[in-house]
Amino acid sequence: MSQEVMTWNRYIENVAQTFIEIASNGKHVTWAEESQFALQALQKNEKLASCQPRTVQNAVINVAAVGLTLNPALGYAYLVPEAVKQSNGQYLQECMLRVSYKGLIKIATDSGSILLAKAEIVKEKDEFTYNGAFALPEHKMKPFEDRGKTVGVYCAAKTHQGDWIVDIMDMAEVNKISGAAKTDSVWKGWEDEMIKKAMIKRASKQWPKTDREGRLEKAVAVMNEYEGSDQLLTSPQLGDFNVEQKKYFDQLITDSDALGMFCFQHSLSDESIFTNLYHSFEKGQKGKYQAIVKDLSSRGFILFEDCRNAIEESAQAGDQMAARQIFEELNHDGQKIMNERLSNEAIEILKQ
Question: Is residue 139 classed as helix, strand or coil in its secondary structure?
């Protein structure tokens, strides 16, 4: 076994306990299989093997949280390398967990939300008739001929009661979503896949809710963290913010407080409050400051995960003082969110 493989084996093994703790809640994936799939991906992809180890560890942990296997034969989720610009202007390879549109549908069917679903691309030479939100559209195409450029996408989902729920998006909406992406390399390389995924993600908000909805919400959250959120593109409707929230939001931007921005965003009881704050900049300044907010939120996620990993490692080593020191450096919101995401072992160490 090469030195490189042995090194990655150690990095992956360091998150085994955290993975097992999280995966035990749903029992959708196992450490024995997913750790091997991750190592195989690292061996086959040089760019992936050059990623920052902590980002690979975070992505593997998210496999447990989402409950989708990395088995390449199924195509539900992948470990993907991305060149991410750092605050010092340099680029580093970071590992992202990519959930495919097939993976999202898998979670939705597992949860009992829907019986089945399918997303289809519509081209300009196709014959397409939309028959409303609760009836299948008519879509005729010639699949083996030039169908022209993409003009839209739709998703049809069947409920367990036999009803259809149909949602559509034109390319103007799709382009807004792709424009908000944290990286455009995946959109350029797998455009149809990403269009379908954006459609499934949007459509899933209309599907019936169940008591097993947590996996789908987590999958969408992971996609938002890694890829960018289309939620920030929607027009403000609900969730008015108060003066103190606006003042704090603006101060986080002034201070370039990435971790604070992440914690603030995830502490709000109504997600639309953050959406409205995102749209609260004066005309002519929106583009500049919205880009800053997205960057802070993205970097804040990485910093938060670094803290969580450090606490978990200290807990595994039995170092209660180190774990508490890292935990207490977080603000009140950060501590509350951290308590929700730590393993039971780490929480017990912090209580001692």
Answer: strand
